[in-house]
């Protein structure tokens, strides 16, 4: 069984942005953990045992108890390890951070996936929706360096991965997702965030991710032709 | 979220709502559970107030909680805000692991029960069948959880503290699910295969601060029928 005693184990997948944001949280909190790679699409008995409801990574196991859903896991990490807080202290600012993380996951990410996996008119509409929603997300920066203020916080690690994946997705799918003219502040923030050493060192190898993205896109395109 | 330019007294709480919205109802349950005084403002969703549009410019929806002039939106975000701001009668568990599990189940309910139920209400044919299947599968999981967590002594998911976060998030099913079934023309509730869930619904309906908030079903059916017809009419005209 993973997570012996007080230990922390993370079940993840190298190309998953959801596992990545949990890694970022653990890194910021300086938590020692054991990482276990799932060889998707095959799912290990351990994964199926620890996340029977969704059968998905990431799963965090702490003191033998499993948790699933990346943002739930990140809030748990923030509550158990109190230094370098991720969420702000004030309830209103916490509510704003949670609101924006939800907005990104529900409005930006599905649009990005549709812009990546569709063609023609559908693709164009999805890409436009994504660009507009990123513009809306930009307003949450409120002139700050990072969403967390002077340093990165919950919202930065919740949405920062989009900058990396969107750039790769737009190259492979041939559609504009990050429009630097439309979102000048967010573009700068994506760049700054992804260059931070603590963030950069957790990113999957970019050439491997690009290959993976190309293969995934090929698969999706074949599916649309049948 | 835009900063509210509402001339609110310090500490004043206002809730923008709509009479038949289960999302608004959840927030009311949280406020009542805490004993928080609030002003309720009924919105006309066909003619949204300036206050609503400036407080929730992104989604333009209810519920909106306005506290100290600050607007908070999205029912689950609002409930956590309420729990963190007013410390009496905790809604979420104190233990971090239990809190995380409560949030996990709240997300599950929203993604696998609430959203598909809304989609099933507003669709027909194959599209609706797909959603109904999703809900039925999710209800099996919910029944499993109810079997595991509830008994004669522990009748709510909040455990020994009584009603909790998961109960409040799931609570809409005890009144609205039957309405959605009737209007949408499908069945997902089954007392035979969901005995623990039905026990939970019966107990939830009887909670003293919940019971008076559950309005007559006929009104809900009438309104939701109109919404369904309007939605399907739009789809047909595309």
What does this entry look like structurally?
- Chain A is α+β, with helices and mostly antiparallel strands.
- Chain A is built from ten helices and four strands, in the order E-H-E-H-E-E-H-H-H-H-H-H-H-H.
- Chain A has helices spanning 17-28, 45-50, 70-80, 91-117, 120-138, 154-159, 161-173, 184-195, 197-200, 206-225, and strands at residues 8-12, 34-37, 59-62, 65-68.
- Chain A has a four-stranded mixed sheet, covered by helices on one side.
- In chain A, a hairpin with a 2-residue loop joins strand 3 and strand 4 (65-68).
- Helices cover 55% and strands 7% of the residues of chain B.
- Chain B has a four-stranded mixed sheet, with helices on one face.
- Chain B is globular, with a radius of gyration of 18 Å.
- Classes of the chains: A alpha+beta (226), B alpha+beta (238).
- The A-B interface holds A 53, 62, 65, 67-69, 72-73, 75-76, 79-80, 91-92, 94-96, 98-99, 102-103, 136 and B 1, 58, 67-68, 70, 72-74, 77-78, 80-81, 84-85, 96-97, 99-101, 103-104, 107-108, 141.
């Amino acid at each position: 069984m993973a997570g012996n005693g007080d230990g922390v184990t993370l079940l993840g997948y190298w190309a998953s942005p959801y596992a990545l944001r949990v890694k970022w949280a653990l890194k910021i909190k300086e938590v020692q953990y054991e990482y276990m790679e799932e060889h998707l699409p095959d799912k290990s008995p351990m994964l199926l045992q620890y996340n029977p409801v969704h059968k998905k990574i990431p799963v965090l196991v702490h003191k033998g108890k499993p948790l699933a859903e990346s943002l739930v896991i990140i809030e748990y990490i923030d509550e158990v390890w109190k230094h370098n807080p991720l969420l702000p202290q004030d309830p209103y600012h916490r509510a704003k951070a949670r609101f924006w993380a939800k907005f990104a996951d529900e409005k930006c990410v599905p649009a990005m996936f549709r812009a990546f996996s569709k063609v023609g008119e559908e693709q164009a509409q999805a890409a436009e929706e994504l660009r507009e929603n990123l513009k809306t997300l930009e307003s949450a920066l409120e002139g700050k360096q990072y969403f967390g203020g002077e340093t990165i916080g919950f919202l930065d690690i919740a949405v920062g991965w989009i900058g990396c994946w969107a750039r790769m997705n737009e190259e492979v799918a041939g559609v504009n997702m990050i429009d630097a003219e439309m979102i000048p502040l967010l573009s700068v923030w994506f760049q700054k965030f992804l260059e931070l050493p603590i963030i950069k060192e957790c990113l999957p190898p970019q050439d491997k991710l690009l290959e993976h993205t190309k293969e995934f896109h090929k698969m999706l395109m074949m599916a649309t032709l049948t | 979220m835009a900063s509210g330019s509402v001339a609110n007294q310090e500490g004043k709480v206002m809730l923008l709502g709509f009479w038949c919205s289960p999302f608004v109802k959840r927030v009311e349950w949280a406020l009542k559970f805490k004993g928080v005084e609030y002003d309720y403002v009924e919105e006309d969703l066909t003619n949204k107030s300036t206050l609503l549009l400036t407080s929730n410019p992104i989604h333009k929806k209810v519920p909106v909680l306005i506290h100290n002039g600050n607007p908070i939106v999205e029912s689950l975000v609002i409930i956590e805000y309420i729990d963190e701001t007013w410390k009496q009668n905790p809604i979420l568990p104190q233990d971090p692991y239990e809190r995380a599990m409560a949030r996990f189940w709240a997300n599950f309910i929203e993604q696998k029960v609430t959203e598909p139920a809304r989609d099933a209400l507003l669709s027909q044919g194959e599209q609706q069948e797909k959603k109904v299947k999703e809900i039925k599968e999710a209800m099996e999981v919910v029944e499993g959880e109810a079997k595991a967590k509830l008994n004669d002594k522990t009748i709510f998911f909040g455990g020994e503290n009584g009603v909790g976060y998961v109960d409040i998030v799931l609570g809409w099913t005890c009144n609205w699910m039957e309405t959605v079934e009737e209007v949408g023309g499908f069945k997902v509730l089954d007392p035979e295969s969901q005995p623990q869930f039905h026990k939970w619904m019966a107990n939830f309906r009887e909670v003293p601060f919940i019971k008076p908030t559950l309005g007559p079903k006929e009104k809900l059916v009438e309104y939701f029928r109109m919404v369904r017809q309007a939605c399907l009419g739009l789809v047909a005209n595309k």
